[in-house]
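Retry 2 of 3 after timeout on previous attempt. Resubmitting structure tokens to design endpoint.
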């Protein structure tokens, strides 16, 4: 009789090595910029060469994170400038996935200076794409963007940025209101605009969260579709 042992999720093939203990979790939360040994396997004595095949996926942000900003977000463009919000919750034309549910599209000309809405650490940048279009499968991955990790474990994403204009790199610590890039029309985009969202890691699923923005006299305002947003 042949007995086959089921492997933990993520391990595709193990031969001539010991199985990890049943209580071994294969989910890990890693500190940023760290080097951590996650898992080891012991080769079986007198066995042939060991074989280990595996796959993995990862998501930035702590799964235990809670969205707790210490103040409303700054509008992500220059002070005293105003731009129209073309899409935001609860209206959704293209924001149909969890990571875009509460995202905000702000119409602005290509080359508009973009500033950090909240301080944090840059952990991802894409800057060399130069085209945009209306095919989500073809054009979706060609958006230039910046992702900035916040102190509470959430992160901000600034997308559709202009080609080769990003002023920050992974590892940079940016302050609220710091100039980071120029707006553009790259990726899945019907016209020049900035896509801005705040994301949390909700059990290995990126999920956008609702935000408030700083209004006049440091008031908190809720972004509304069709309204004119001014940076203070």
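Retry 2 succeeded. Sequence:
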């Amino acid at each position: 009789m042949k007995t086959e042992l089921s492997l933990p999720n993520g391990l595709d093939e193990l031969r001539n090595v010991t199985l990890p203990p049943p209580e071994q979790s294969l989910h890990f939360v890693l500190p940023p910029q760290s080097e951590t040994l996650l898992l080891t396997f012991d080769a079986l004595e007198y066995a042939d060469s060991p074989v280990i095949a595996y796959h993995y996926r990862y998501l930035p942000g702590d799964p235990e994170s809670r969205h707790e900003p210490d103040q409303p977000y700054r509008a992500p463009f220059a002070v005293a400038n105003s731009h129209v919000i073309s899409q935001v919750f609860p209206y959704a034309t293209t924001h149909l996935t969890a990571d875009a549910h509460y995202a905000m599209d702000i119409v602005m000309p290509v080359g508009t200076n973009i500033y950090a809405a909240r301080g944090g650490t840059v952990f991802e940048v894409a800057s060399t794409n130069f085209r945009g279009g209306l095919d989500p499968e073809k054009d979706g991955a060609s958006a230039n963007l910046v992702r900035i990790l916040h102190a509470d474990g959430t992160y901000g994403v600034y997308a559709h940025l202009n080609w080769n204009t990003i002023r920050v790199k992974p590892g940079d610590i940016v302050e609220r209101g710091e100039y980071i890039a120029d707006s553009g029309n790259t990726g899945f985009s019907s016209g020049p605009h900035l896509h801005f969202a705040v994301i949390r890691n909700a059990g290995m699923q990126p999920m956008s969260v609702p935000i408030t923005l700083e209004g006049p006299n440091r008031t908190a305002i809720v972004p509304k579709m069709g309204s004119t947003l001014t940076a203070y």
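Attempt log closed. The mean pLDDT is 91.
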